[in-house]
Specification:
Layout: H1 3-13, H2 17-55, H3 58-162, H4 168-182, H5 189-192, E1 214-216, E2 226-228, H6 245-253
Antiparallel strand pairs: 1-2
Helix pairs in contact: 1-3, 2-3, 3-4
Pfam families: ING, PHD
GO molecular function: zinc ion binding
Function: Component of an histone acetyltransferase complex.
Length: about 250
């Protein structure tokens, strides 16, 4: 329920409260007036009772004593009625206070539920965006790997057809490119020194972009996933499943 609904509902329940309170207070004031009037009569009869005691008029003295007792009983009845009205008035107000507390608790619970649902929806939306981003990165890595393999094949084909016509400088360049493609461990910095797009994703333990031949770790929870042949000591793709050094150590510990 909305805040306006709670407020309107509660104000409707308070519509008759002022009238009921006014009625109870008027009744209590009327009881007070009656009791005070009787107390004046009691004072008058008490004075007469004392006068009759001095005169030793036993009959009148007893009559006044009985009348005083009756008046005190009447005052006590008025007092009891006034106490009952006070209790009734207190319970009437307390009932509305408890209802207000209950409505406030329900309203706060609804606000908390909405906040939790909103946070959960934001988390799910964020997780979905991360999943899509990760999927795009995987697709980009696959495209990068395929492009590197195509370039590697094209380079080898040109090397075969060039033969004796190629000069010594061209042969040296082809050999250097061949070493990068094979992921030579000795000097990978020759390729890493080339200008790189800052937006290009990085891989491998060297934290560099995709180049040459790369291999993917078969551990689905691997944090890096793709590695350069040279950085992990490979020259050819191994048979069967392959795990990176970190995942291999973790599997041995288990």
């Amino acid at each position: 329920m909305t805040t306006a609904f709670y407020l309107e509902h509660y104000l409707d329940s308070l519509e008759h409260l002022p009238t009921e309170l006014r009625r109870n207070f008027n009744l209590m004031r009327d009881l007070d007036t009656r009791a005070q009037s009787i107390m004046k009569d009691i004072d008058k009869y008490a004075d007469e009772y004392l006068r009759y005691v001095k005169n030793e008029d036993e009959e009148k003295r007893m009559a006044h004593l009985e009348r005083i007792e009756n008046l005190y009983s009447k005052v006590k009845e008025y007092g009891d009625d006034k106490v009952q009205l006070a209790i009734q008035t207190y319970e009437l107000v307390d009932k509305h206070i408890r209802r207000l507390d209950s409505d406030l608790m329900r309203f706060e619970a609804e606000i908390q539920d909405k906040a939790i649902n909103s946070n959960r929806a934001q988390e799910e939306s964020g997780a979905s965006k991360k999943g899509r981003k990760k999927l795009k990165e995987k697709e980009k890595r696959k495209k990068g790997t395929a492009s590197s393999e195509d370039e590697s094949k094209s380079g080898r084909k040109k090397k075969k057809t060039g033969g004796a016509v190629a000069s010594t400088a061209i042969a040296s360049t082809v050999n250097s490119a061949s070493k990068v493609e094979l992921g030579a461990i000795n000097n990978p910095a020759d390729v890493l020194d080339m200008p790189v797009d800052p937006n290009e994703p990085t891989y491998c333990i060297c934290n560099q972009v995709s180049f040459g031949e790369m291999i993917g770790c078969d551990n689905p929870d691997c944090g890096i996933e793709w590695f350069h042949f040279g950085c992990v000591g490979l020259t050819v793709k191994p048979k069967g499943k392959w795990y990176c050094p970190k995942c291999s150590q973790d599997r041995k510990k288990k």
